[in-house]
């Protein structure tokens, strides 16, 4: 049996969570005050994911950069590959919020989208 201590990040309460695992399977979560904490804890210890935010260059726009993010969270181990894939991306203006900048970044099945409009 293994236990892990986490702080839930799903809401401002920041509940201290204790996750019990047996043979790599979550058997118990304690400390959460809502169902979201339990869901977060199970996911975080078995398959952690993150939203990645960054910027890419814009050609011919009012600003030279646009903020971007993954449309959904991606596996934590793919973060560096995602950032590397964005390093040389240049888009042409105009760019609108929600535009897909890179499809299937780092073979995650998740797109990179613009989070700002640049005309």
Molecular structure report:
The chain has 119 residues and is of the alpha+beta class. The chain is built from 2 helices and 10 strands; from the N terminus they run E-E-E-H-E-E-E-E-H-E-E-E. It has helices spanning 35-46, 79-86; strands at 2-7, 16-22, 25-30, 49-50, 53-59, 65-70, 74-75, 90-92, 100-102, 112-114. The strands form 3 sheets. Strands 8-5-6-10-9 form a 5-stranded mixed β-sheet, with no helix packed on it. Strand 1 and strand 2 form a beta hairpin. The radius of gyration is 18 Å and the shape is elongated. It starts with a strand and ends in a 5-residue tail after the last strand. The mean pLDDT is 97.
Helix residue percentage: 10-25%
Q: Order of strands side by side in the largest beta sheet?
A: 8-5-6-10-9
Shape assignment: elongated
Give the strand content. Answer: 35-45%
Radius of gyration from CA coordinates: 18 Å
Can you give the mean pLDDT? 97
Number of helices: 2
**Secondary-structure element order, N to C:** EEEHEEEEHEEE
| Biggest pleated sheet | 5 strands, mixed
The assigned structural class equals alpha+beta
**In angstroms, what separates the terminal alpha carbons?**
56 Å
List the uncertain runs.
none
Care to count the β-strands?
Answer: 10
């Amino acid at each position: 049996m293994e236990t892990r201590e986490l702080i839930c990040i799903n809401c401002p309460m920041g509940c201290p969570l204790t996750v019990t695992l047996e043979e790599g399977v979550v058997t118990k979560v304690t400390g959460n005050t809502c169902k979201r904490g339990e869901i977060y804890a199970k996911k975080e210890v078995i398959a952690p994911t993150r939203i990645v935010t960054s910027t890419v260059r814009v050609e011919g726009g009012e600003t030279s950069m646009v903020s971007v993010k993954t449309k959904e969270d991606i596996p934590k181990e793919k973060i560096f590959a995602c950032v590397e894939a964005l390093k040389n991306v240049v888009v042409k203006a105009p760019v609108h919020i929600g535009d897909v900048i890179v499809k299937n970044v780092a073979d995650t099945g998740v797109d990179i989208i613009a989070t700002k409009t640049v005309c």
